[in-house]
């Protein structure tokens, strides 16, 4: 099991050539997203929002907004990941906990007081940096979940997010994180040279 997981990590590559005839079911996509949502996030805020595009006509419209990269149209589907700052709102968080954890009104008030103090002490944890971190953790989990289901994908940021938000009627305050086109690989990804551990690690022993 350990070796299988090590191989799974070691063999990851970004795939940009897809089998254009392959289709992925909505049920499979929902299972992939459910698995990805096990990712950690600060205070369990889960600030990610995902727009899933499975419509070929829409994918074609996204191509010119993605600098004409063919994988946008060729992929079986596309995940577009955004971060929603509303998920860091204390009242919003408290409402989620009240509905899902069945806390008493006293426990909810204590939670709100704790979170208010936390954000006053560390405002960065409710800003764009936090959204990028939390949604980055989710996105890496999403890439792994895609592979676990026998598919491949590639994270992309070289796109016109403003145009994409306008085309898909995305809320203005959602922060774009990345796009992941995915599907059945049509050819293997190119190997990349990685920096050795000694080059990016400092040990304090």
Automatic annotation (TrEMBL):
Record keyword GTP-binding present:
no
Alphabetic keyword roster = Oxidoreductase
Extract the CDD domains matched here. MhqN-like
Q: Where is the Nitroreductase domain?
A: 10-184
Q: Does the keyword Oxidoreductase apply?
A: yes
Task: Return the SUPFAM superfamilies for the record.
Answer: FMN-dependent nitroreductase-like
A Pfam entry, by short name: Nitroreductase
Q: Which InterPro entries match?
A: Nitroreductase (IPR029479), Nitroreductase-like (IPR000415)
Q: Family per UniProt?
A: Belongs to the nitroreductase family.
Query: What name does the UniProt record give this protein?
Result: Nitroreductase family protein
Q: Say which species the protein is native to.
A: Lactobacillus apis
